[in-house]
């Protein structure tokens, strides 16, 4: 009777050990990956897109000048003639390939396509000496 009791205790210990070992046998769940918030990376400021190329614009200024007075563009470039408050016109010299003249205007913008290579002088007929030129390469 007593021996049987001891045996039972031994069995119990073995069982407990096995249970413990079994528990330890379970593959430990890998520690949860720390749910750290995604690193906040501030992207570098995108470069400011360049403004419309000023080289494609001629301004008929209120000071009775064309600015820039001399402009060089590639063939096929559309040039914007911007008129400020003062009325001006654009009369191209009689050059083959020159675009159409621009009638007297103010506070507006008119575009002309330069499709032919060459040097195209022009003037404002309202203001003597108010000249400019577009060189097309
Ligand atoms: Cu003028």
Q: What are the key terms here?
A:
137 residues, alpha+beta, Immunoglobulin-like, five-stranded mixed beta sheet, four-stranded mixed beta sheet, 9 strands, elongated, disordered N terminus, binds copper (II) ion
Order of helices and strands: HEEEEEEEEE
User: Which parts are unreliable, with pLDDT below 50 for 5 consecutive residues or more?
Assistant: 1-5, 7-25
Rounded Rg: 43 Å
In this entry the ligands are: copper (II) ion
Largest sheet: 5 strands, mixed
Q: Would you tell me the overall average pLDDT?
A: 80
Short account of what is shown:
The chain is α+β, with helices and mostly antiparallel strands and 137 residues long. It has a domain of 83 residues: Cupredoxins -  blue copper proteins (Immunoglobulin-like), CATH 2.60.40.
What would you say this structure looks like, in words?
- This protein is of the alpha+beta class and 137 residues long.
- It has a domain at 54-136: Sandwich (Immunoglobulin-like).
- 18% of the residues lie in helices and 33% in strands.
- Residues 1-5 and 7-25 have low confidence and may be disordered.
- It binds copper (II) ion.
- Residues 64, 88, 124, 126-127, 130 line the site of copper (II) ion (CU).
- The site of copper (II) ion has 6 residues, from loops.
């Amino acid at each position: 009777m007593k021996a049987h009791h001891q045996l039972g205790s031994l069995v119990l210990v073995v069982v407990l050990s096995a249970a413990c070992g079994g528990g330890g046998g379970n593959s430990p769940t890998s520690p949860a990956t720390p749910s750290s918030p995604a690193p906040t990376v501030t992207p570098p400021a995108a470069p400011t897109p360049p403004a419309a190329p000023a080289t494609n614009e001629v301004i008929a200024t209120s000071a009775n000048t064309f600015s820039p007075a001399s402009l060089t563009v590639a063939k096929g470039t559309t040039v914007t003639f911007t008129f400020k408050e003062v009325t001006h016109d654009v009369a191209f010299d009689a050059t083959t390939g020159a675009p159409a003249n621009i009638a007297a205007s103010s506070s507006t913008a008119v575009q002309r396509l330069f499709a032919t290579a060459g040097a195209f002088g022009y003037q404002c007929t309202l203001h003597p000496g108010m000249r400019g030129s577009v060189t097309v390469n």
